[in-house]
Every structure is written in C-alpha cells, then in structure tokens.
Specification:
Number of helices: 4
Radius of gyration: 16 Å
Order of helices and strands: EEEEHHEEEHH
Shape: globular
Largest sheet: 7 strands, mixed
Helix content: 25-40%
Low-confidence stretches: none
Distance between the termini: 38 Å
Structural class: alpha/beta
Length: 162
C-alpha cells in the first residue's frame, strides 16, 4: 500500500433494520487513508404494521432518503468529497446533496477492490467519472468496503454499552 496521503473525505452511509420493525441509519466519515474523522447515527425508529403495508417495498428507501440520510450528512462538520452507499436505492439521496454518491458492491465473493461494482444516480452519471480517480487512489490505501463493517461494529458496541 502507498504511503502518500490522499486528500478526501469519504462518507459511508448505511441503513440497518433490526428485529421488531425498527430502523436506524449510521455513517462514518474517513479520510483518504481510511482513518475515521466523524461518526454519526440516528435513533431507532419503530415502524407500525400499517406503515409497513402502506410503504411496502419503498419503506427502506423512504426512511433512508427522506428521514435519515440527509440529516446525517448535513450534520457532519466536514463536507464529504464523496458518499458511498451499500444499497442502490440510497442513490436517490443525490437529489438532496451537492456531492457525488455512489453505490459500491463486490462483483464477486473474493472481496478484491478491483472487483467493485460502482453505480451512480442515472441523472448524475458524471459523478462516477469525477470520483473514479479518487476511488482508485483510496483503493491503494485501504479496503474501500471495510468501513461499512466498522459502522456495524460500532452500532453493536454502542448497543452493548447501554
């Protein structure tokens, strides 16, 4: 891995569904070397059976784009250079923010950065072009997907401390 610094603030945003119809969202902001700068999460929101029925397959998208995501991103002290998400529907947040948002996922099971699937909002396809060079630099510094695991670990640790 390279020792030169990469200037970037990369936000990782994920939604979590827990038992008993509760949802929350969290993010971690890392620098271009993968070191954490900021961490934010929302309180859990309980969803009723009626709400689940009314929203149907759009429930998580609604919660992520209308309730949680924009607030978490706006509360950051440092504006992200790019936002990475692990659910494709979260790309709809792009309508509410002024920086690139990219859905990233492994193409196959070998967890290699070079096998990443990267998708951007269809109306902002240039975001991927603008971000590709930065992502390539960062991939030389750290596993691009690993911060999503940190979010999950942090939430579990927080819950265990309660």
């Amino acid at each position: 891995m390279s020792t030169t610094s990469v200037e970037a603030h990369i936000a990782y945003l994920t939604i979590m569904e827990e038992p008993k119809d509760t949802f929350s969202e969290a993010l971690i902001l890392v620098d271009g070397n993968g070191y954490p700068i900021d961490y934010r999460y929302t309180d859990k929101i309980s969803v009723t059976e009626i709400q689940r029925a009314i929203y149907g397959a759009k429930l998580k998208e609604y919660l992520s784009t209308e309730i949680f995501g924009t607030k978490l991103l706006n509360d950051l002290e440092h504006q992200p250079t790019i936002v990475l998400v692990n659910e494709e529907y979260m790309l709809k947040l792009r309508d509410k923010i002024d920086y690139p948002i990219i859905f990233v996922q492994n193409e196959n099971s070998n967890m290699s950065n070079s096998q990443l699937k990267k998708i951007t909002h269809p109306e902002n396809e240039k975001d991927l072009e603008k971000s590709e060079a930065l992502l390539i630099k960062c991939e030389k510094k750290f596993d691009i997907l690993e911060p999503f695991n940190r979010i999950n670990q942090a939430i579990k640790s927080f819950e265990n401390e309660k």
